[in-house]
Design a protein that fits this description.
heterodimer, A: alpha+beta, Nonspecific Lipid-transfer Protein, Chain A, 5-stranded mixed β-sheet, 5 strands, B: alpha/beta, TIM Barrel, 2 domains, 8-stranded parallel beta barrel, 3-stranded antiparallel β-sheet, 15 strands, globular, iron-sulfur (chain B), hydrolase (chain B)
Chain lengths: 215, 332
């Protein structure tokens, strides 16, 4: 569908991704969920703990607010990704990969790209709900508290993670600027690659994202 | 009269920055408690956040109005009076009040503080507005959304008070400040606790491809597959009248729809309206940025006598539909 013209025109942030770079980030998020699921509870848990610590350092006010919420679990289900996330708010904040039927006090479902936009305040949650692109179940107050808390931040998932990566942080703006050209090169390489290599690349992509072709 | 003032909502500091950067003349907001009519989880401003917000806005010549527009409860005046005191101390440009006692308190203790009358006061005639002006020095009245444009013009001809009207966003079809529909279903009041359809009492249930919204245990709407959804408010619920079972549920009061009075700018200007208000302190900063920017462009074009550009905001409004509301309501 036509993307409604209400994405934040984030001119204040030099690292704001263009649409092609954004596509890459969404693919990486989906692939990351697939990888985290394969890593299992222990290693995946360590990764998510690290991610939360990075985000907490960048957004202390939001994390303090999440910590003050009553102990509850929120299932975040990107319907086009291989796994869902279980966010525990309250005194013991935690994030884990989980099955999409995991038990939780509240559930938010929607396409991965939209959930990522919502996390970063690039799109309005009410508008997504009105258009039925986002569905919610369970404790509405918990969902609203989370949404409002995150919307009060200027979060940039990849930017925040890159910022914690020392000298590598300078790579992200460059990567975002050049994402379109890199994708074009990749597409060309894919077209020119001999069939066995092409099939191998496609299989690897499917394994990473956990998706079947055409899904 | 100068150009219209554009008054924009903010539910958090990021939304305030978005509104200021997108071209607001003033931003209205509330404290994080029951003293304002958008008392929702995770929303609104702490005192330090208000101080930062005012500094940000004033540095860019944008005003900040603090809505303290619920009605204090018997024996518990302190939160409301403290809110007025803190807004004055932090140098807010105006407070938006509804309660007579609170107006009297503000006028007595903060004579230099500019007072606006909230839409929640439902002041809809010249006599009422004159009383607020003479008794408390109210400088501006936010008119309830029940008046037609000719009625607004007649009213402005009779009073010496600035008027502000809503032009975009969610729409209360009831008389503001006097609606108890949500109180009936939830036991919590929009007018006292600032919660119309409190999230704690709202549940959404998928029913196959349909979506049911429930408030306080009552099913108030079922949206079919692909049908645009609306807020879970009783005034926009679908019901079977008269307790019958054979008729399809229908909207008894108002359909899920959003106000957009952009087409009425010439009439509102001729009616001597001073300021135009965008609803939506509960909305995200992406919405605020887009709506404020669109209205800024429209008002700038209007002020220069140029064609007013269309907003193209249908995709983000309640029910995916827009109306000019009571301003042009034929049945009135």
């Amino acid at each position: 569908m036509r993307d409604p013209g209400f994405m934040v025109q984030d001119q204040a942030h030099e690292t704001a991704p263009d649409p092609r770079a954004r596509d890459v980030e969404v693919q990486l998020t989906r692939a990351g969920l697939g990888v985290a699921r394969r890593l299992g509870d222990r290693a995946g848990g360590l990764l998510f703990d690290r991610l939360l610590r990075i985000l907490e350092a960048r957004h202390p006010r939001a994390f303090a607010a999440l910590g003050e919420l009553p102990d509850a679990r929120l299932l975040i289900d990107p319907v086009d990704a291989p796994a869902a996330l279980l966010l525990r708010v309250g005194p013991t904040l935690a994030l884990r990969v989980c099955d999409r039927d995991a038990e939780a006090e509240a559930t938010v479902r929607g396409p991965c790209a939209r959930l990522l936009d919502l996390l970063e305040g690039r799109i309005d949650g009410d508008a997504l709900f009105f258009r039925r692109e986002l569905s919610i179940e369970g404790d509405t107050a918990l969902i609203l508290a989370l949404r409002n808390t995150l919307d009060g931040e200027e979060m940039d998932l990849f930017g925040d993670v890159a910022a914690a990566a020392g000298p590598l942080r300078h790579a992200l703006p460059v990567a975002r600027r050049n994402a379109g050209r890199a994708l074009d090169l990749l597409a060309t390489a894919r077209r020119l690659a001999p069939p066995p290599l092409r099939w191998g690349m496609a299989m690897l992509e499917r394994r990473l994202t956990g998706l079947r072709q055409g899904a | 009269m100068g150009p219209f003032e554009l008054i924009c909502p903010a539910g958090n500091p990021a939304a305030l920055r978005a509104a200021v950067d997108a071209g607001a003349d003033a931003v209205y907001l509330g404290f994080r408690d029951e003293t304002n009519a958008r008392n929702f989880p995770g929303l609104n401003f702490s005192r330090p956040e208000l101080a930062e917000a005012i500094a940000y806005a004033h540095a860019r010549s944008v005003q900040v109005f603090v809505a303290i527009n619920t009605y204090p409860q018997a024996g518990n005046l302190a939160p409301w009076q403290r809110a007025v005191d803190d807004a004055a101390r932090l140098k807010a440009d105006a407070v938006i009040l509804a309660d007579l006692g609170l107006l009297a308190y503000a006028a007595k203790h903060h004579p230099d503080l500019r007072l606006h009358l909230s839409v929640q006061a439902s002041a809809a005639n010249a006599e009422a507005i004159r009383l607020y002006r003479e008794a408390f020095g109210v400088r501006r009245v936010v008119l309830p959304r029940v008046l037609t444009v000719p009625e607004i013009a007649r009213l402005n001809a009779e009073v010496d008070v600035e008027t502000e009207v809503f032009v975009f966003g969610g729409l209360c079809p009831m008389a503001e400040g006097r609606c108890s529909l949500s109180s009936y279903a939830t036991g919590l009041s929009p007018n006292k606790q600032g919660v119309c359809s409190p999230a704690s009492h709202v549940r959404y249930e998928p029913r196959g491809e349909a979506l049911a919204s429930r408030l306080g245990g009552f099913t108030i709407n079922v949206f079919g597959a692909g049908e645009p959804a609306g807020y879970p408010t009783l005034c926009k619920g679908r019901f079977v009248p008269g307790g019958g079972t054979s008729r399809d549920p229908a909207y008894l009061f108002e359909e899920p729809t959003s106000l957009n009075a952009l087409a009425l700018l010439p009439e509102l200007k001729a009616a001597k309206v001073c300021a135009l208000k965008i609803e939506g302190r509960q909305r995200g900063k992406a919405y605020i940025a887009a709506v404020v920017a669109a209205y800024r462009r429209a008002l700038d074009a209007f002020a220069q006598g140029l064609p007013v550009p269309a907003l193209d905001l249908e995709a983000m409004v309640e029910g995916g539909a827009q109306t000019t509301g009571a301003y042009t309501r034929a049945w009135r």
